[in-house]
Amino acid sequence: MIDKQQSNLEELYRDHSKRLVGYVYNFLRSENEAEEVAQEAFLKLHSAKKPEEIISHKAFLYRIAHNLAMNTLRRRKIVRFDTGIDMEEIEVESNEPLADQQLSSKQEFKTFCDAVAKLPPKCRQAFTLRVIHKKSFKEVSQELNIAISTAEKHVLRGMRECQQYMEKAKNQQRNETSQSAFEARDSNKKLSRG
What we know:
It is a single chain. This protein has helices spanning 2-28, 31-46, 57-75, 99-117, 121-132, 137-144, 148-193. With 194 residues, the chain is mostly helical. The protein has two domains: 1-77, Rna Polymerase Sigma Factor, Chain: A, CATH 1.10.1740; 99-181, Arc Repressor Mutant, subunit A, CATH 1.10.10. The longest helix has 46 residues, at 148-193.
């Protein structure tokens, strides 16, 4: 059953990845953002809680991509400078993330790097060229001297394995945090009794 679902996802990726990027591009007008949203949509489809309940994977994929594109549009900030306000007099809050957010981002990045490092060599090369260096599948296939469909399979496998690795690391970190909290609470109880 899992092999059949995996095969269906690979076929869906092969048949629709370019079209999906084009679809998202119509909203965002940015090729990089469109590619990122399309990749995220495939990841979300792949990690769907109950894939057997999805009637049409294609329709579900496009709905995910549409929602992600709308979220991206909402996050964009359009600043108009024609208000007549002296911009020098306005105090602007720092856009720097808070220290704990920076730490969390660094940890996530390190976990992502660890996940990529664990990929098989060809898969890692294809994944890195496509996802990090933003090369097209054609460029990846030419650079690695493999078929385009093989490049697509490597990238999809890389996406899947990195996501699984990161989820596992996140769960492990969550368990360690709750275990530490439990131990701290337990030692506080012992101190208060003694």
